[in-house]
Amino acid sequence: MKSSDGRTIDMKAMASAEFPKGSYSMVIKIPMPPAQITIEPSTGGKDTEITVEGINFGTQEQVTIDFGNTTAITIVTSGVDGSLDATFMATPQLNGAVMITTTGATSEQQAQSTFTYSGPQITSVNVAGSPAKPGDIITVTLVGEPDGIATFSIAGLANDVEMTEETSGNYVGSYTVPEEDVKDATVTAKLTDTAGNVASIDAIEK
Prior knowledge:
Layout: H1 11-15, E1 36-40, E2 43-44, E3 49-55, E4 62-67, E5 70-77, E6 84-89, E7 96-104, E8 110-117, E9 122-128, E10 137-144, E11 149-154, E12 158-162, E13 164-167, E14 170-176, E15 185-192, E16 198-205
């Protein structure tokens, strides 16, 4: 224990002796229990709405939430009981485990949980213009996650034909058949998201 003038006081020695004149104070800091969080859902992709609930943060302090490589994706204020309730939309990440980290500004309490990121999402692929003869146009339409890069390939004929995102999440590309009829060929559509993740799906040109 220290006196008001900064002297260190030996409490054992003082127990059997008379205290010198002066004022004394004692501060006992009780450690806070560890902060804890839960997340819902625990898996998803871009723009998945994630809810974070937590306990044992400081009273009405600012709590910063980091999502993978996105620092301070949201900052919220804890409740009077140190509880936490926050919602944010997932930003593009590399597929796999993504750490969600919550940090109290005053208490420095920190808790983490893992979100499994999976992307990009492809909803459907449609192939039109079959069977195709030389000079015919094969049109491929992909519906999936917006703001990506889409291509398609036709087995034995064409590779990585670029597609255009005509409306949000709707990609269209076309290929003109050069010399041989095309029937029962496998068309592979591929979508790459802004994080570099790649998804593909096969369709049959009949």
